[in-house]
Design brief:
121 residues, mainly alpha, Arc Repressor Mutant, subunit A, 4 helices, 3 strands, globular
Length: 121
Amino acid sequence: MTSKGRDPQDLLPLSQPVFRILLALSDQRLHGYAVMQAFADKTGGRARILPGTLYSSLARMVEDGLVEELDPPHDDNSGGPQRRYYRRTALGKAVARAEAERLSVLLEVARAEQILPESPK
C-alpha cells in the first residue's frame, strides 16, 4: 500500500502509454514533449510514446494520482504557450515497479518456453 492507501496492484495491468510515461519521467520534472524524447532516448529509439496518446494519458494519470502537474520553472522561456510539467508521484513509482515485476514474470515464462533467449549474465 502507498501513503494514499491505494494498492498499486489494483491499477494493473497498465496500458503501454501509461507504463512508458512512468518510465520516462523517472524522478524528474518534464513537459509533455520532453517525456516523449526521454522515452525514445531510454529505448534507443526502439519504442516511442505517440503524441495522440501522451496528453490524454497524462490527464488520466493526474486524476489517478500517478503523476502530478507542476508549475513551469521560472526559466521556461519557450516563447509559445505555457508548457505543462509533470512529475511521477510515489504512487506512480510504486505502480511502475509493480508493472515491471508483473512483466518480469511473463518474461521468465517466455524464456522457459524458449520464446526468448536466456538473459545475458
